[in-house]
Amino acid sequence: MAKTFYITTPIYYVNDRPHIGHASTTVWADVQARYRRLKGEKTFFLTGLDEHGMKVQQAAEKRGVPPQRHCDEMSIYFKELWKELNIACDDFIRTTEPRHKAVVQKVLSALHAKGAVYKKSYQGWYSKSMEQFVTEKEKVDGRFPAHFGEVIELMEENYFFRMSEHQAWLVDMIRQNPEWIQPENRRNEILGMLQKPLEDLCISRPANRLSWGIPLPFDPDYVTYVWFDALLNYITGAGYGEERFSGNWPADLHLIAKDILTPHAVYWPTMLHAMDVPMPRKILAHGWWLMDREKMSKSLGNVVRPSDYIAKYGADALRYFICRELQPATDTDFTGERFLQRFNADLANDLGNLVNRSLSMLQRFRDGKVPAPSVPAACDDDLTATIRETTEAFRREMEGVSYGRALESLWRLVTRANRYVDENAPWKLAKDSAQAGRLDTVMYWLIQAGAQLIRPLYPVMPETGRKIAEQFNAAQLLEDGRASETLELLPPGHAIGKPSPLFPRVELKK
Ligand code: MSP
């Protein structure tokens, strides 16, 4: 069985409705999955929800509903948003599903039997209102801040995973695989952190304190604590224990943001190593969206709801913005002005105009049929060179999940093609019958340049890609697995479809 390209997103907590941060990682994954499918790679794209733990239990209590019902209701918000955003995942996993509980319990039993999991008592500071252990480091001026509520000394027995045993192996593995954690600044953070001794990982909570979790198979007085449960979703989704597992695993790309890098780059590989399961091939942690330089998050209440943008500007415009602006290595401020600037400049002016005026001119001057070109002039050669160079750069950046740079390359072609129109002024050529041959050549290359945008645009903006393909009457360009290394030229005589504007400009209020 051929190995699939297996890509994942984090599984999101169901203590709140999704915001633009959750939408962004999911869009990034969808773009990569669509890009791979179009190339002809068999792809498996998994996303889903992390439904256990104290926060979810508390969110349900606050609403006065049983936790499972809370999860069921919250899952609808995520599923609906993914539909609105055209997220084409192959599977949607929820950690409360029986298939996942079975995998978690199987792994726990195996690790316990091997002696990789043991029980020990832990003594520390415990915040009663937050229902969690807190550390000395969190003290301000020698005392715990007021929002910690009453903090008591508590001794508790729990189960631990012998993570520390894998430290030397992990450091070695990361050093030998420079691409394994991306981008490089995050890799260095993890290597820096691994200079200090790694502790064993607490993987349980007493069931009388946290009831909303998967019971430990060897001790029903405990439930599995969040990360151990959550990370395993990646193998549950891939079919751990089933025949299809070997076709999916290892994951080719775990996409996350930087907040959850340590669990993915430290807990997860050591868990897999203890289980004798091969390592995922790459972890990519992108930066955060900020609002006024602070992290956008539910607890700060400064979130942007994707549905507002989708309703006003369409899913594709939001997908474009997320891919164009959110950075792998740094954080990015999210502002409405920036969104509108991108919408008007890149989508309405550059792309929308190019496509619309190229097709309209072909309609007007050549009855909507691609003419036969004659000997190319220097600017025709320059345009074709730009097509080759930018589509090649686009491919390279897409493979490396550098969407901002990939789109920048593609927009170099858009800009070049718009300049080509201005340089050649087809409306002037059309007035002079002696220039009929030149007009043929110009219209020929202009249409080819526009058509070359269809395949690269599609993964980022699937609706727009399809609309442009339709207007060019070239739906075949979006068939999966079509060779994309060569220029696919629309032959002379090809009749285009009906042009219509793609992104109506939005007037900015002064
Ligand atoms: N449930 C865990 C993940 C378990 S994965 C095995 C969790 N959930 S979460 O709901 O908090 O989602 C965190 C993820 O949401 C981030 O890693 C990122 O993908 C996305 N984002 C949430 N806020 C974000 C920003 N402000 N900016 C960009 N993405 C962010 O952690």
Give structural notes.
This protein has 510 residues and is α/β, with parallel strands linked by helices. The chain has a domain at 335-478: Isoleucyl-tRNA Synthetase, Domain 1. Helices cover 48% and strands 15% of the residues. The strands form four sheets. The protein has a six-stranded parallel beta sheet, with helices on both faces. Strands 5-4-6-8 form a four-stranded antiparallel beta sheet. Strands 9-11-10 form a three-stranded antiparallel beta sheet. A hairpin with a 4-residue loop joins strand 4 and strand 5 (132-134). Helix 18 packs antiparallel against helix 19. The radius of gyration is 27 Å and the shape is elongated. Residues 10-13, 21-22, 24-25, 50, 230-231, 233, 256-257, 259-260, 288-289, 295-297 line the site of 5'-O-[(L-methionyl)-sulphamoyl]adenosine.
DSSP strand content:
15-25%
Cα gyration radius (Å): 27 Å
Largest β sheet strand count, sense and barrel closure: 6 strands, parallel
What is the CATH architecture descriptor of the domain at 335-478?
Answer: Orthogonal Bundle
- Number of DSSP-assigned strands: 16
CATH superfamily of the domain at 335-478: Isoleucyl-tRNA Synthetase, Domain 1
Structural class call reads alpha/beta
What is the global morphology?
elongated
Instruction: For the record, give the distance between the C-alpha atoms at the N and C termini, rounded to a whole number.
Output: 59 Å
Helical element count? 19
**Physical arrangement of strands within the biggest beta sheet:** 3-2-1-12-13-7
* Unreliable spans: none
